[in-house]
Amino acid sequence: MTDANLHLRTQCANALRALAMDAVQAANSGHPGMPMGMADIAEALWRHHLKHDPADPHWPDRDRFVLSNGHGSMLLYALLHLSGYDLPMDELRRFRQLHSRTPGHPEVDITPGVETTTGPLGQGLANAVGMALAEKLLAAEFNRPGHTVIDHRTWVFLGDGCLMEGISHEVCSLAGTWKLNKLVAFYDDNGISIDGDVAGWFTDDTPARFEACGWTVVRAVDGHDPIALDGAIETALRSERPVLICCETRIGQGSPNRAGTAKAHGEALGEAEIALTREALGWHAPPFDIPPAIAAAWSARERGAAAHRSWQQRIDHYARAFPELAAELSRRLPRDASLTSDALRALEAACDAAELRAGAVATRKASQDALHIIAPAMPELLGGSADLTGSNLTDWKGHRPLKGAGTGNHVHYGVREFGMAAIMNGVALHGGYRPYGGTFLTFSDYARNAIRMSALMQLPVVHVFTHDSIGLGEDGPTHQPVEHAASLRLIPGVDVWRPCDATETAVAWRESLRRPASPRPGPSCLLLSRQALPHAGDGAVRIADIARGGYVLRRPRGERVCLLATGSEVGIALRAADLLAAQGIAARVVSMPCWEAFERQDAHYRRDVIPRHLPRVAIDAGTSALWWKYVGEEGVTGDVVGLDRFGESAPAGELFALFGITPEAVAARACALLDTAGGAEPRAAQSLPA
Question: For residue 512, what pLDDT is reported?
């Protein structure tokens, strides 16, 4: 490498440093240290190896770049601007400002070229594992000898914080097991986090850890030496395993007084220090100004267009040789991929078959029955479970298990709920597959932040959560979810389905899988029972009503009270209505399998289902708190039969009796409510045991 070329590369990296410190200073908010420390690594990757087309950020065979340490977002924004993406300098000047395209942490669908929303540390790395998995599976499914149309890499920047988060252990173990050789991670080993020198709390032998997980590790690379970085990347390109490149860097590189200190991490350098840094770097351009020679050296438009044209020629040849495969690949690659007519018919067939089923069935089994019909018609389905396949029943007849470094359409994630959920986000972001994964509902807590991220990114991920209440019985309170359904309902954008029988379960699958084409795309959670539940309804009219999230299951004449429930408690409500009828009290029964879908209905429909003139009793084998939005309206008498404590270890029937969640108890509470509404003293009102 000539001195002139080395100087150019250094100045290209300094352009990243200058934009980062200028934008953070203008906002008086942000993280300049990581962008300044990783600038040389970014220059080595983006200018010399990354395959991308700034004119088309959604080109299917582009490399994916993930900034897992998303607090350093100005590094990515500077890279996108300089490379030629539609991100003008004015947006960098508006860093972290309202409605700018340069938010504090990268957000997919806000900034062109951003592949995933990052910031919660470790999850970007997990998303990258999902992207690399999707690439591997698509390549195996669609590439043919002489026709390689899926062939790209996933590159990740990460820091100490990502590696301290437990999720990194989960997903890097899987990446090594799956031999995701097109996944390359750059570890920004600068030894500094917010609290200072990490030697006081992070002394892991990171290279040895990754080697033990089956990665190729390139150790002790000078993260400020372009020649060393080029050599490390060339090693990565030859590896048959995922690669970790350990880059020794200085946080805030170039700053005379802040480099190598925690002060560089999360606050503006200040005008005086920026002036000193400019002098130290030999960077004399004013703020937000890039010299023409540097701007020209950074532009990736011509190189990106050429790579894109080359791929387009390959895909055109592929389409002539394999027209059906090419059409299917084209359909599946968009994140909001449309469903085929066969898939749509299968979804309807699953609902019809469920409605014809007369006997009692656990909704986890009803879910599997629906998958037996749906999955063969949806090759894009990528199922899985966190070591609970036989309990979650997420597999189907004819599925192909993915184990080790092979391929398949049902993933064994092992006991890694958080990793599973975040990997599914990466798969959904990549395109080509519709991921779903299962675990027990109580373990949704492990996955919760990844579920939140899928909602924030509006990703069509389906979370299958079984053993949804005290109905799981003897495993006891550690496994019995009480607050979990309510907790999931609090996440904006998540559709939470808790079906009461096989028909509602099939409809929940239908609506979840159709959701990407809806006005409100996003993830869905299916909360399914371990115990058998009776069939609740009759006829195709009910199928249409279920999709609306809440509907009248029983509407007798002369109604005096309204019973509302979801899941296993719908059967209790129906039996309580029978007991009340025997006393001459007509009770409406409302099933509410998906509150979010119900809230999307117009006010007239919602009022028709839950009329104001009827006193209301809600029944839930979980926390009562959120039900008061429906039973506690002003001027309406209401009550909730719920469970505002942890469970016990005992058979399910004994537990429902212990906690007063029985038809008899509900009927008594309804009678007491009616007495109160009528001005008389309550009679036989039952309370939950302490």
Answer: 98
Alpha-carbon gap, residue 27 to 97, rounded angstroms: 7
What's the distance, CA 518 to chain centroid? 18
- Burial of 266 by CB count in 10 Å (0-12 exposed, 13-18 middle, 19+ buried)? middle
Cα torsion 223, 82, 96, 278: sign: positive
Q: Which residues pair with 437 in a beta bridge?
A: 463
Per residue in 13-54, pLDDT (tens digit) is 999 999 999 999 999 999 999 999 999 999 999 999 999 999
What Rg do the C-alpha atoms of the chain give, in angstroms? Answer: 28
Q: Count CA atoms closer than 13 A to 55's CA, side-chain side.
A: 11
pLDDT, tens digit (0-9, with 9 covering 90-100), for 249-299 = 999 999 999 999 999 999 999 999 999 999 999 999 999 999 999 999 999
pLDDT band at 634 (very low <50, low <70, confident <90, very high): confident
Confidence of residue 539 (pLDDT cuts 50, 70, 90): low
In angstroms, the CA 8 to CA 644 distance is 65
- pLDDT: which is higher, 538 or 514: 514
Active site residue 417: yes
Backbone angles phi, psi at 576, to 5 degrees: -65, -40
Distance CA 295, CA 291 (A): 6
> How many C-beta atoms lie closer than 10 Å to residue 541's C-beta?
10
Tokens matching residue 390: 């036989």
Angle, CA of 361, 365 and 366, to the nearest 5°: 70
Q: What share of the chain is helix, strand, coil (3-state, %, to 5)?
A: 45, 15, 40
pLDDT the model gives residue 385: 98
Could you tell me the CA-to-CA distances from 480 to 211, 216, 420, 488, 663 in Å, in that order?
Answer: 38, 41, 21, 15, 21
Helices (H), 469-559: 484-489, 502-514, 540-546
Q: Which of 532, 551, 632, 621 is nearest to 593 (CA)?
A: 551
> What is the distance between the alpha carbons of residues 436 and 410, in angstroms, rounded to a whole number?
9
Determine contact, residues 652/665, Cβ cutoff 8 Å: no
CA distance 144 to 141: 9
Strands 401-402 and 410-412: parallel
Q: Which residues of 127-145 are buried (b: 16+ CB within 10 A; e: fewer)?
A: bbbbbbbbbbbbbebbbee
pLDDT band at 688 (very low <50, low <70, confident <90, very high): very low
From the list 165, 273, 417, 569, the catalytic residue is: 417
Question: Of 141, 140, 114, 117, nearest to 127 (Cα)?
Answer: 117
Distance CA 623, CA 47 (A): 54
Residue type at 111 in one-letter notation = T
Q: Strand 410-412 to strand 434-440: parallel, antiparallel, or no bridges (unpaired)?
A: unpaired
Q: What is the 3-state secondary structure (H, E, C) of 89-118?
A: HHHHHCCCCCCCCCCCCCCCCCCCCCCCCC
